[in-house]
Amino acid sequence: MYKVFVNEKKLLLSKQPENIEKKLSYEGSTTLEIALDLLENTSTEELNIFGDNIEVIWQEFQNLFRIVEAAGGIVSNSLGEILFIKRLGKWDLPKGKMEKGESREESAIREIEEETNLSNVELGEFINTTYHIYIERNGDKILKCTHWFAMNFQGEDTSKPQIEEGITEVAWKNTSQIESEVFQNTFKNIKLILKEFWNKAK
C-alpha cells in the first residue's frame, strides 16, 4: 500500500479496497487523474484507488509527476526527546532534497546537520518513505519522496536554526510535548512517520 498526501488530503493506493470515504477501482491512468482532481478541487478528504497489480498502479502514478527525492531523520537524545524544527509556522522534522551522487543516508545526515547545526549525529535504521504532492511556481507537478531514518545524538547540544532556509526554531520535545504541541501544528506525513518510528521502537 502507498499513502500519498495531496494538500494534506490522503490518497491510498492498495490491492484491496480500504474502509474510507471514497473508493475507485483502478481502470488506467484516467482513474488516477480523476482521483487527484477530486482531492484537489472538492471537499473529499481521503480517497482509495485499488487494483490487483499495485506496482503497476504505483508506476503509472509516478509517471504523472516529476520525482524529487529527499531524506531526513528522527533524532533522539539520551532523554528520549526528539529534535524538531519550525518552518513557515509549523513544526517539522529536519529533512531536505538529496544532492546528486548522495546516498539517502548521507543526505539525511547532511540535512540534519545543516538545518539544526548539530554535528556527529549517529545514523540508525531506515524507518520508511513518505510521499506528498505539490505544484511548483512554474506549474510542474512534483511527487516528493522523503526517506526517513532513526538517528541518535549524544554530544554537546549546539542546535540552532538555519535561518537562511526559513527555519525559525529548533527544539527538543518529549512525548507529551509532541502530542500536545507538535501534533496540533504539523503535517500529516510527520505524524505518520513519528507513529511508525514509535511502533518500531516498541
Structure in words:
The protein is α/β, with parallel strands linked by helices. 28% of the residues lie in helices and 38% in strands. The protein has an 8-stranded mixed β-sheet with strand order 3-4-2-1-9-10-5-8, with helices on both faces. Strand 1 and strand 2 form a beta hairpin. The radius of gyration is 18 Å and the shape is globular. The chain starts with a strand and ends with a helix.
Question: How is the topology of this model organized?
Answer:
Layout: E1 2-6, E2 9-14, E3 22-25, H1 29-41, E4 46-50, H2 54-62, E5 66-76, E6 82-87, E7 90-92, E8 95-97, H3 104-116, E9 122-135, E10 141-152, E11 167-173, H4 175-182, H5 188-201
Parallel strand pairs: 1-9, 2-4, 3-4, 5-10
Antiparallel strand pairs: 1-2, 5-8, 6-7, 6-11, 9-10
Shape: globular
Largest sheet: 8 strands, mixed
DSSP helix fraction: 25-40%
- The proportion of residues in beta strands is 35-45%
In brief:
28% of the residues lie in helices and 38% in strands. By secondary structure, it is an alpha/beta fold. The longest helix has 14 residues, at 188-201.
Keywords for this structure?
eight-stranded mixed β-sheet; alpha/beta; 202 residues; single chain; three-stranded antiparallel β-sheet; 5 helices; 11 strands; globular
